[in-house]
Write the structure tokens for this entry.
Amino acid sequence: MGYEETVSAHYGRGNIEEQLLGMVKADGGTPDSFSPANLRGADQLHIGGAAATTRVAGRAGINAGSHVLDLGSGMGGVSRHVAHDFGATVHGIDLTPQFVAIARSLTERTGLSGQVTFSQGSILSLPFGEDSFDTALMVHVGMNIQDKDTAFAETARVLRPGSVFAVYDIMLMGGDVEHYPLPWAATADTSFVQPPLAYSDALAQAGFTVDYEAKPLAEGIEFLERVTTNGGPAGVDRDAMVNLLAAFRSGLLAPVEIYARLT
């Protein structure tokens, strides 16, 4: 099994859509027609959930006129949130076929198919022409990407000049990651966490200029403390979240936002 197939297999497990629709039904909703908010962020596999998506989208300048590319769109939670709350048109791409199928199904059920579409594919070889989008988001995806230079060069290719690329990833603050599983990898074989400087260097090489960087570590710790007690994003192993919480508390890893503009 190749590297990308291993990453895809890590995420394509379990009856995730069934779990999400069960949440809607348990809250008195109708599984065939509901608002993205009814999923309570369980379809957004990143630190901070829906609140973090709102922050990142706002800082990226997304609005009703934005044509957004969601890199590593997973179950489509970020894409639907950005379309519903900001009025943007969004296309998500993800490596995992199961996630793409779930994303399309949930998007149809939330009535957003006219604004949000998805395709299955690799960020390292995007199936889009040049100058196709004016904003790109990559939310908790880079930890699985070894070749960030190619990923960022591909992103630059499909963005229009002046576009914003917002990256929100778990990044390495120092030391070596020793304890697995983590939410994005069962072993070190598919975990490629890097420090913020490595991201900035790769972005610069691709033609981006970094405008702003933030590290919401306190929020990340609080979020993981809550979800390890009460349950978190669908399909994420609790032991993986416990290990990530320990890495946050020790200062080994941290959630980092980077906003860069294509020059």
